[in-house]
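Bit of a strange request maybe. I'm writing a small parser for structure token strings and I need a real example to test against, not something I typed by hand. Could someone generate the tokens for this chain?
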Amino acid sequence: MKTRGRNNMNRRDLLIVGASGGVLGAARAQSKMPESIQSPLNVRRFGAVGDGVHDDTNALQKAIDYACNNKLQLAIPGTPQSYLISDSLPIPHGKHDWAITGDAGRVTIMQTADNKPIFEFSSRGNDYRDTTNRAFNMRNLRAAWTRNQSIANSESTMFLFDDGGYADFQIDNCENHNGCRLVATREVQAPGRPLNVWGCVLSHLFSGYAASGAAIRLRTNPVEGMPNILISHLYALRQMAEEELIHLAGCASVNIDNVEINFGRGPQLVCWGGTTEVNVRSWRMEQCTIVDTPRKVIFDLSGDGPREGTYRFQGVEMRFTTIDSSQPHSVFHASAGAQLIIDGYQEVATTRKSGALTVATTQDARIQFRSMADINSPHIFLLDSPHLADVSFATTEVLRFFKDGLTPGMNHAPNDAPSVVKGQVIGAAGWIWAIEASLDADVTAGQIELMVFKNGLPIDSGMMKLAVTKGAGGARVATVIKNTNHSDYHVRPGDRVHFEISTDQPFSGPKNAIFNLMVANI
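Reply from user aminoacidic:
Good idea to test on real output. This should exercise your parser:
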């Protein structure tokens, strides 16, 4: 009877707690709960010290296993020193609804082993479709190594995804102090151990000045596909970095929002291996240097072959950039099948030691400029595209000129219509950016050169010459810089424009030509 009464009392207490949630009921319930659940779970209860001297590897691993297996939030208390580890900390596979959180700002975990990650995600060969880790959160953490890690130590990554499936998770307010990478996938998976990451948020990340590699590198082999990724509020100091800030391969529906880079060198965003539908908003680079690299581009959207993806950039700002290269470089480069939309690009206070920079280059890709702020440097060009039909602006005016009876040995002959006296009248303010020639036959010998005149005066730049050489025929394009240091390129309503045409003595081929002058309000 006593035993039954004692059991009845326990049930009554539980009913009181469940029904009323009152202080008395809660106190009674807590008095019966295991000690491990009465207070917030933190790593100190598993023996972690956090003094920067004791090895906390085993204690942290026990705490992580317990939190993940029981769907709990694990707190890592702040410490003036760091939590020292001598090996990576594997995350149990197939677990969901758990969190690991630093209590104060960013709590430092210090790795003493070279070329070892801090947190490692692996399914240990299990099929990720049955053991996907999902709905988890890691935040307020700083990764550091006792020695700076070089780019060769690519395993020295804060969050390394090896194999398995990971969905609907967030990594927030985390920092790579001096390792190689912050978030990365292992690039070559073992046979039968695929990796898939999707539906994740990577936000408020910091890549420190001593970091040698990318902040985010999502690239797998074989490619499994990584859709629906949000990268938000990423700040990086890139003095020692030897690879791009973000590298994406096989990713789809990617949104990148608010990125700031200081002291970067070379490429910063690479979209490769079938990465499509990328939207970038507010990307700012300050005191970066354009140097010789194999890619020769800042935003490499070329992939590894023809792609039908769309890449949108809204608000790209480059401030105090130094051009120091022996080969031409570009800000954006897209390849066949892609569509590139640039809505807001600004260059401020660029200096040049050597080389030149083109805003956009393409290889059979479509490109659309929606808004361009002033480009002040004479060494920055707007566009280099072999196909004018693939380029468009928000507003464009096309001025058409005719020349009948092309003959050998012409020397600065004016176009026939509109007349050289009156020229063609500009209707809206804008920038001259390209010339298109349409010929009635191929040029079988010699070449055509033309010079553009504005208000009776020649435009003072060889960039405005269009040369059609032997063998050329049909439509030909010469792209032109948009640059405020060349005021001749800027036209206002009422300005008059015409051509003068020259041919060499052996010239033969077309008899008639149409020249289209493109003016854009950019």
